[in-house]
Backbone:
């Protein structure tokens, strides 16, 4: 058996993409999201990464009441899984090709200020929250996270006592995150999430993951995930390279080629099997707390 630390599984439950039409198992209501979080924890996830949706339309939402209900339901269940809230919404826009060149927020949603993006984190104080270190082309849209926004958000998150998960989508994002840590804008306790195969970010290959890992500050804790069919190969790649892993319906709708996942626990169960078949130990929530949370 390997002597490497136990492998932490994060489960990204629902995301912001319009995916329910492709797989009706994608949770939308606060109750569905919380129930799937609890089931994912029972299947082996130590962390659940949470976006919220409008339960009537299934579309992405930033409504505080939905975050509050999800967090309350998980905590009331006495499930010891670590709660990770997103701060990603309110950052996507398109740029039309016709004049005048005015930016257009995605799905008619307003772009959000740094303080608006972290308001639910400050109030609910989850264990972890995401911080997207990425300004990039995201498919046909633009994902906007300038460094001055990141610094302002990081200040509010740190003041709330919440651990930051730095989501990096390409080599330059890893360099920026490392710079923000070196200059004191982000604490050294931050956890890195390497987001692979997102259009148009870094490809999900072992060599690219290894190079992104090399660019991180020495001793950094990190995880990685792949989109779609790259999800389960990335579980193996990240585990072998010494990292942790993320799976879930936010990133992939299938448990096997042509077979839709029944729920998030279905994906976590497969990831746990891959990790254990490699000879590695699966982390418990207590392992994850000891390894990741700021002390």
Residues:
């Amino acid at each position: 058996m390997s002597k490497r630390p136990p492998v932490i599984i994060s489960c990204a439950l629902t995301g912001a993409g319009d995916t329910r039409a492709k797989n009706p198992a994608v949770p939308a209501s606060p109750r569905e999201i919380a129930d799937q979080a609890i089931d994912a924890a029972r299947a082996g996830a130590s962390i659940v990464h949470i976006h919220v949706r409008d339960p009537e339309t299934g579309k992405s939402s930033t409504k505080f009441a939905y975050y509050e209900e999800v967090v309350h339901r998980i905590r009331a269940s006495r499930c010891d899984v670590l709660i990770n809230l997103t701060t990603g919404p309110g950052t996507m826009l398109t740029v039309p090709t016709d004049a005048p060149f005015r930016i257009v927020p995605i799905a008619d949603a307003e772009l959000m200020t740094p303080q608006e993006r972290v308001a639910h984190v400050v109030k609910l104080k989850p264990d972890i929250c995401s911080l997207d270190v990425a300004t990039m082309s995201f498919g046909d849209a633009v994902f906007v996270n300038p460094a001055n926004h990141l610094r302002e958000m990081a200040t509010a998150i740190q003041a709330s006592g919440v651990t930051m998960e730095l989501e990096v989508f390409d080599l330059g994002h890893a360099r920026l995150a490392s710079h923000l840590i070196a200059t004191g804008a982000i604490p050294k306790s931050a956890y890195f999430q390497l987001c692979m195969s997102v259009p148009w970010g870094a490809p999900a290959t072992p060599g690219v993951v290894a190079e992104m890992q090399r660019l991180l500050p020495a001793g950094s804790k990190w995880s990685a995930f792949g989109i779609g069919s790259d999800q389960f190969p990335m579980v193996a790649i990240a585990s072998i390279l010494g990292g942790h892993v993320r799976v879930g319906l936010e990133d992939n709708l299938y448990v096997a080629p042509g077979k839709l996942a029944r729920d998030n626990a279905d994906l976590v169960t497969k990831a746990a099997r891959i990790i254990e078949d490699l000879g590695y130990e699966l982390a418990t929530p207590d392992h994850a707390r000891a390894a990741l949370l700021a002390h």
User: Anything to note?
Assistant: The chain has nine helices and 16 strands. Residues 30-43 form the longest helix (14 residues). The chain has one domain: 9-292. The domain at 9-292 is CATH 3.20.20.70 (TIM Barrel).
